[in-house]
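Here is one such protein, fold included:

. . .
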Amino acid sequence: MEIGQNITNQELWKMKPTRSLEEDDYLNKNSTETTSVLKRPVLWNLDRTTLDGFECPPKLQHKQELFPEWRLPINIAAIISSLTFLYTLLREVIHPFVTSRQQYFYKIPILVINEVLPVVSITLLALVYLPGVIAAFVQLHNGTKYKKFPHWLDRWMLTRKQFGLLSFFFAVLHAIYSLSYPMRRSYRYKLLNWAYQQVQQKKEDAWIEHDVWRMEIYLSLGIMALAILALLAVTSLPSVSRSLTWREFQYIQSKLGIVSLLLCTIHALIFAWNKWVDIKQFVWYTPPTFMISVFLPIVVLMCKAILFLPCLRVKIRKIRFGWEDVAKINKIDIEMSSQL
């Protein structure tokens, strides 16, 4: 300590090795004088860095874009939501009012919205894995992985994370809206009406076996699908993804993601049950929303099943490891040169 007292503060600061603040506190915790000398400049620089980090210069505020990676997913989600809302409103509210003067406008805040949410959620989830399918077929056609994808496909693949998070957001809203069904006053009135009709018909038991099984199965599948979507959303966070290896992250995002899409599709199909052949469901010759919602997920799952065939799976794996189909590459080059 006597030697330390003869050294000036500036000389001591120049002699200090480059360490972090935590190392300085740990190494100098037994030396009060040295710690006080070393921490003053560090804290002054830390305060200045903190202010610079939180205070954006006025010139850069107008140059920085607002959520550039979220624009495409949000726009597509807004378009799908708007179209689905208008379609559901036409079937559930406007049709009864026009044909039989029944006012079902009370359905808009809860029932209509809750029919829109699952359609948007499962469609966005299918849009997460559709570009990967397209990219696989493009690589099979080109015979190499070194040829660039089209610009629209490249941009689509870079926004898959945002599509997935928006899908999880709509799925959570769908679950919350579904849980609020028994809280509605209209549901309580309907429950009383059903009980009165059962008494009038002199029924002691209103149990319907197949309807009970339908609800039990599709609710269970919906819960499992939501749990997997939550896992996918958590692992997409940078702090969590950095703690995983590339193989672990790829397994969760690709394998479990397809499982969640499969569960969501089966959830929608079992919800429909026997409504596929019910003519009353086709209002104004329009199919119900669940038929439209499962179309794209079924296409993605079928394409995934085709790519899972051994003949294609082995070839795609070889291409992604650097193998090139020389015959296809030469054929494409000849076609491009002939066009020029």
About this structure: Confidence is low (pLDDT under 50) at residues 1-51.
